[in-house]
Amino acid sequence: MRTRSRGYAENEEEVPACDGNGDRVEQRPEKAREETEAGTRKEPATENEAEETLLQIEPRMMGMEVDGETEIRPVIDTQKVHSLAQQTEPKLSVDADVCNALIDYLDEFVGEVIDKLVLLYEMRGKKKLETSDLEIVLSMAHKIQYIRFYTHRYTATSIVKSPQDGRVAEGPSNRAHAVHPQSSFHRVIATLWFSTGAAVSIICLFGITVYLTQMLLADISMLAAMRPKVAPFRVAPPFGVDAAIPVPAHQQPPVDAPENGSLKKLLNKPAAIEAEREKKQEHQLPNGPGPPEYDVLDEGAKEGGLVPIIPGWNLPWSHMPIFMVILCFAAIIHELGHSWAATSNGVQVNGFGFFFIAVYPGAFTEIDSLTLKKTAPFKRLMVYGAGIWHNLVMAGLAYLLFMATPSILSPLFLTGHGLTVKSVDARSGLHGPAGLSPGHIVDAIDECRVREMADWRECVRQLETQRNGRCIRNSRLDATRTEQTSMSIDELHCCDGFSNITQAHMCFESKEMMKSKEMVEDLVQNVVKVEKRVYNCMSARYVTDQPVCNSTAPCQQYKDDPDNRVCVYPALFNGTQLARITVRELDRPVLYVGSLDELIAYVRIDPLTRRYSWVDDDWAEAVELVPKYLFTLSLALGLLNAVPCYALDGQHIVSTLIRSVFSHWPSKRRNTLTSLVLLSGVILLASNVLIGFVKLAIL
């Protein structure tokens, strides 16, 4: 006779019991049965024995006639299960002790940490992060207990085992986590999905190990290569040449010309005088900055590797609410992946909940270890890698959402119509009322138009590689010419002799043709033309409004101008340049004197510009933060859990792989290899985290 089985008892009514052959079995009264069991049952000595005894309970088969067929139902002794479950189930409830712990947690830890981080944020522009600044955080963190609570747990009365496949069946109180019967199509899809996750998690395990090792070696090399910045003897560069570009020795003007009566003597004599004048100016230059500064050789090394997230330091306080919500969401996705994979592979899930370590939240899934060990190794890899896999999938979806953000915000914001300034670091020369402010829309840097994010970097690099000057009329140069000059580290000053100057005035340099009427042994009677350097004190705003000139586009293109023009350059050295930033909201452009790298490092911009004047720029930032943090946190949570380290998913993946690949080895040797791999992972992860704090403090 064909039989069918169900995974749970539909009611608690008394049903005549049958043995394996279908014969009716005499039932004893409930009270007598309890007395008999109470006299013969022995309490387990340990928690593990209680769990093993619980799993060894064999269900009695109960049957009844339904439409001519015998319906078989697996049941268990609920009284015995409840008694054993009380010995294994931890006493977890929100009672007075937990409430007091939460109150102490908020009063003692959060208050002091927030006060300290607020102080760090206020001192951010004045000092760098030091180890002493984190002492209060570290001293308080170890005092905080591990706060953990459940959102759902299985109850003892709902533990029912299927006699055929051993899966945990659905009971009245755990339908949300039950293993429901699946069709063959759904079973194949689930198997393919979690098999892909297992393969991806293994790839991530090896990939993140190689990446962290490479970053650790690069960071160690970077820290070892750091040395005090020794400023070489500053020299005024040749005309129109940036000091960052060295001048070959054969192009330097000679100091001493040969003393002979030839034409070469006359041609070199003015150059020697000019070189002697420049030599005297060199002795006025300072030897460099006083206190030594650190100079990082590897460009971009600060941004690489693991970066600790400290609220108020590198995480704005205004981002904290959305950061915490996204972090909780990413943790839930991670743990739900484990839970789904476990239930799909017939592994019992005991509960789900959240925990807090200091100010950071997390989630956990309790999977029954005994039933998990009984499954095949590849199914265990499916369960262990499901959290990593789901985090990576969520990161991919977040990236697609971020790419679609302009389309989502298109009714209120435009793209390709300039760049919006989001913030300017207080250390930048562009910070302040005369510089850039949040909400400004930048249209151009000098003559380079900016429309997209890539245009911003391209314009900055273009100004660095090609130094531009401005074409000024001769009449203006004659009125602003000066002979009094003095030198600072990065700039030549020549405006001290003028009374009507402002902060916008600075020194510009140009070249003038010299005339010499000496006779050269009756061989040369023409005028010999030699160039010399001339300095003018002019308003930078007036100069930047004039046409651009450089080595490829001289001022000769303005020949129709009755007043001839001369190309002048700012008298700035050692990488300092003058930039003209066109802002849509301002009548006059913003002038900037300094290193152009600050435009990239200290100015945060956004490609979205508001379509209407009443639209707030913060709206776009709030919408963009969701996919940004979701991508970052999901990717970080998934990859970090793949590290072969204790207490992470990588620990279980490594253990399962070693036990499967080296199954012919003795158990002791496999355990030793597993311990060595995990210990290496702990050292690797801890070293990267430590160097992350070091770079955060000194860079």
Automatic annotation (TrEMBL):
Keywords: Membrane, Transmembrane, Transmembrane helix. It is a multi-pass membrane protein. It comes from the Eukaryota. Residues 323-678 form the Peptidase M50 domain. It is found in: Endomembrane system. Residues 1-52 are annotated as: Disordered. This is Membrane-bound transcription factor site-2 protease.
